[in-house]
Amino acid sequence: xxxxxxxxxxxxxxxxxxxxxxxxxxxxxxxxxxxxxxxxxxxxxxxxxxxxxxxxxxxxxxxxxxxxxxxxxxxxxxxxxxxxxxxxxxxxxxxxxxxxxxxxxxxxxxxxxxxxxxxxxxxxxxxxxxxxxxxxxxxxxxxxxxxxxxxxxxxxxxxxxxxxxxxxxxxxxxxxxxxxxxxxxxxxxxxxxxxxxxxxxxxxxxxxxxxxxxxxxxxxxxxxxxxxxxxxxxxxxxxxxxxxxxxxxxxxxxxxxxxxxxxxxxxxxxxxxxxxxxxxxxxxxxxxxxxxxxxxxxxxxxxxxxxxxxxxxxxxxxxxxxxxxxxxxxxxxxxxxxxxxxxxxxxxxxxxxxxxxxxxxxxxxxxxxxxxxxxxxxxxxxxxxxxxxxxxxxxxxxxxxxxxxxxxxxxxxxxxxxxxxxxxxxxxxxxxxxxxxxxxxxxxxxxxxxxxxxxxxxxxxxxxxxxxxxxxxx
Length: 474
Description:
This protein is of the alpha+beta class.
């Protein structure tokens, strides 16, 4: 079928595939290095306990068949190896069918992780990686030109990511309509980056321009993805620039990077003239047509959600995460709160005891410490600590287990932190948590004190607790 393929998009496909493999690699590496403390047999939310109460049909995963920490590690590191192979271009050296099978491996492995990941994996970019990764299976290799339908469906994902996020903002916090959300966002976002302090202190008129530009990029530009070239390329390029601006302003795991990756297939990249690819195999055409029909049929639920006044963010409508709805920051916090966790060696804890603060890798703690850049790597515990500061309800399922592991000086849990104030052979006798209000310092305060944050005590979050007294809720 002449209409079936899109010659001229081979370079766009190549860049997309290599970049997507890179995102997969980061995702699997994050899982491999963090899972024991979060989801392992002695984790805060153990997978064995989860699969006992959630059936396979609801959350398809290899771990319903069997779970052990060793098996999870094998899955995660295998995902790293396959992603690295795809990044190196192994799929291009294989026959078409074998290349497709190779792309199916990281999708299936990561689906198995996400579907048992519980609250640690309840982020929109998990579903976004799975939805994008599934489509990548049918994009083909050098044996065929990129299928038009798959390129269209990739643009359809990008449209839903951007347009859905734009709608949730207009329907959500009034500050988006007043163009004032960025007065607060850089200070209260989940995990600030090294430049976030400076973004926060940009002139307020510029913040209003940023919000207005964001509305244009998310509510108008996505429609241009479906127009002829070079307009579609210009639209995708504008989205990429917007995402790179967001990369500079904060740590959003791989959300911005996977969005950049999704924009690449819409680019008409210049390439050297190449001989036409062989005729597309009939079986490949049939498979792509069937998959496209299925995904278009499943798309009705995200469309209904986008059109609804009760639009929800980041929802999967099927257990395989084939078609999802997206969105972020429908509401922007005006005040930043942080949970500060401390321990003491005293047998009888008092206010004047030697309370030592645990330092997290990414979330604000020591006011003198400048925020670091971690994205696209995802610090899952740090992100959940941000939610815990918003409300103890977010921390209910896992915070008690975190306190218990700290009281035990659990090695895997301590690896999630930047620093523990206690030596490995001398765990604390008591742990407490306190809630503080954080705000960015002014230019003058930064010059005089070197501190990026000023914090004020608000209230007790968890009273002094010792091993054996830990409850599941703070």
